[in-house]
């Protein structure tokens, strides 16, 4: 009777690791939360920081999700993505200023309705701007990455200057709607009302996007286009129209995120989108190009780590996101949940 090969346990172990592999990125968020709980002595402080980190992560996800699909589907490096955040913030805040009677009322329904109207206006404006941006600036440089970087950066600068012309160069300070000011107390922790709303909105958008991409025909075409665009076109689908639709939707999501980020910071500037681009690129890269789920997990990791590190060691917070990106890419060079393209 022959003895079992010495490498059999290793093969079994490798098989287990292969089965666990797809789930490991999803475990990183609870792992970071547990490590934060161990490092922060006060449970109430940990809960406050966790909600703040989740809210920040959700808003970054909203702004970055469109860009990761544009990267994955269109192979476009859009350095001008941040301008849709700025335009969305200014349009949304302008609507909120017009609706000051609704935002100043002590009614949660009126306050949420005002924010909804501001978000719709911002999404329409940035979606239209995204369509023009794709037609005029991006379309002529498809497939030329260096030119894409140059022309999209130029587009960013031009639109930022148009914001200055229309709204002025000064920062605009804003107040959140009456019912969303202040905080609620839970388990001894002060949880800002607006951050709780941001978590709910971000989670709803993630679930909605996941449903559209996985359970609808257009979602199937988009996912198939990310993996094998030539095959999708061979089946008779007009992938160029899908390109434009994804670019417009991504621009509208960035505008929506701009409104929420402006209310989060309570100040908006013409350069706020450009300042957010570093975080957005980090999230898109560590999540995996074209992966909405990876973008979601990456955004939550960035938000949580930034808040925990800023509380524990403020100086280290300046490099925490870069360190996270380096660690993730050393572990998985293509990102946490990469979209596998056909060769």
UniProtKB/TrEMBL annotation:
GO MF entries: transmembrane transporter activity
InterPro entries associated with the record: ABC_transp_permease, BCAA_transport_permease
Transmembrane residue ranges: 20-40, 46-71, 83-102, 108-133, 145-167, 194-213, 241-264, 276-304, 316-333
CDD domains from the UniProt entry: TM_PBP1_LivH_like (cd06582)
Keywords noted in UniProt: Amino-acid transport, Cell membrane, Membrane, Transmembrane, Transmembrane helix, Transport
GO cellular component terms, semicolon-separated: plasma membrane
Localization terms from the record: Cell membrane
Protein name (Swiss-Prot/TrEMBL): Amino acid/amide ABC transporter membrane protein 1, HAAT family
Native species: Thalassovita litoralis
């Amino acid at each position: 009777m022959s003895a079992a090969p010495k490498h059999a346990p290793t093969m079994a172990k490798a098989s287990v690791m292969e089965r666990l592999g797809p789930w490991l990125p999803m475990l990183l968020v609870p792992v970071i939360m547990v490590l934060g709980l161990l490092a922060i002595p006060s449970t109430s402080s940990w809960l406050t920081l966790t909600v703040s980190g989740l809210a920040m992560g959700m808003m970054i996800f909203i702004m970055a999700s469109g860009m990761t699909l544009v990267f994955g589907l269109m192979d476009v490096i859009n350095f001008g993505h941040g301008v849709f955040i700025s335009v969305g913030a200014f349009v949304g805040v302008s609507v909120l200023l017009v609706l000051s009677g609704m935002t100043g009322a002590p009614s949660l329904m009126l306050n949420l309705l005002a924010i909804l109207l501001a978000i719709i206006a911002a999404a329409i404006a940035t979606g239209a701007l995204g369509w023009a941006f794709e037609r005029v600036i991006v379309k002529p440089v498809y497939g030329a990455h260096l030119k894409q970087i140059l022309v999209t950066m130029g587009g960013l600068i031009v639109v930022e200057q148009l914001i200055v012309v229309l709204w002025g160069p000064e920062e605009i300070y804003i107040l959140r709607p009456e019912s969303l000011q202040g905080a609620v107390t839970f388990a001894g922790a002060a949880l800002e009302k607006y951050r709780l709303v941001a978590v709910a909105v971000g989670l709803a958008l993630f679930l909605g996007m996941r449903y559209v991409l996985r359970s609808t025909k257009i979602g199937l075409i988009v996912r198939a286009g990310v993996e094998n665009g030539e095959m999708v076109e061979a089946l008779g689908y007009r992938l160029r129209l899908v390109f434009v639709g994804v670019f417009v939707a991504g621009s509208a999501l960035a505008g929506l995120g701009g409104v929420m980020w402006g209310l989060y910071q309570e100040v908006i500037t013409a350069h706020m989108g450009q300042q957010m681009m570093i975080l957005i690129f980090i999230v898109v890269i560590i999540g995996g190009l074209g992966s909405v789920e990876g973008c979601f997990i990456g955004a939550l990791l960035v938000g949580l780590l930034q808040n925990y590190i800023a509380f524990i060691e403020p100086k280290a917070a300046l490099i925490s996101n870069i360190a996270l990106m380096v660690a993730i890419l050393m572990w998985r060079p293509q990102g946490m949940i990469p979209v596998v393209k056909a060769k």
